[in-house]
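Notebook entry, structure prediction.
Reason for the run: the old model in the group folder had no record of what sequence produced it. Starting over properly, with the input documented here first.
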Amino acid sequence: MSKPASQQGKEATQESTRTRDRKALVSGLACIAIGLVIYFLPVPDGVDARGMHMLGIFVATIVALVLQPLPTAAVAIIGLTASMLTGAMSASKEAFTGPRELVDLAHRRRVLHRPRAS
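New structure, fully documented this time:
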């Protein structure tokens, strides 16, 4: 006997959800694997170990942004958190500082090139 149409639609939805979840899991694991491979590669001469670790985290984050196992904001926060927890980036010196030099330069240009009142 055939199943009712509503039951068939529900099963198809569940199957597509399982397939989507499976793809997200596989792409997420691929991103982590790529990052770990680069993170644990031997550090070349002249390269700081922190820089090599940051490269692994950066590449994994970029691959995750392309493959989208999670939303973009979640991927960015996970990448930033991973870089701070592993010590590849310090929170006080690098992670939460902005481009201060560019802001200062823009401010100086605006002040210096302000039209004078007549």
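Summary: Residues 7-91 form one domain.
The old model has been moved to the deprecated folder.
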